[in-house]
Design brief:
By secondary structure, the chain is an alpha+beta fold. 28% of the residues lie in helices and 25% in strands.
Length: 165
Amino acid sequence: MPNEPTAGQTQNKISFKIRRAHFDDLASIQALLKPFVEQKKLLRRMQSELILLMANGYVAEVVDAAGSNQLVGFAAVEIYSRKLGEIQSLAVADGYQGNGIGSALVKACVDRAREKGILEVMAISASEEFLRKLGFDYSLPDQKRALFCQLHSREEIFRDDGIED
């Protein structure tokens, strides 16, 4: 069940757990996402947007050398309607990528959408192979393809316009 913490361990021996995001995680999630926003890999989120995403969000934690839990990953499913949800803000900290954490976060989000009765979940990413391994494809069987029309340039979206972090 996605509401219960799940654990994962990879061939690299990094143990982690996936759990629902809590409000107390907000500062750690913002810190995790910041380098990805700066690298223009993720869209900047206002704090209020991030809080809303956290309602259907998950974090990945590892136990650091001091024995404390360290947040190393985040993802959320934004639910648009009973028909459609979208994986949002998937990020895994440098040094922890390639250990199955991103896959576990996406699976938790998909399970959450399934639990809520959502018909379809989409994900937009530069990593096609990663998403295909998790069952995503460009179109659903016997369905039309999604096409996009860009209304603003990425530079417009990413320029520093004083939006709160």
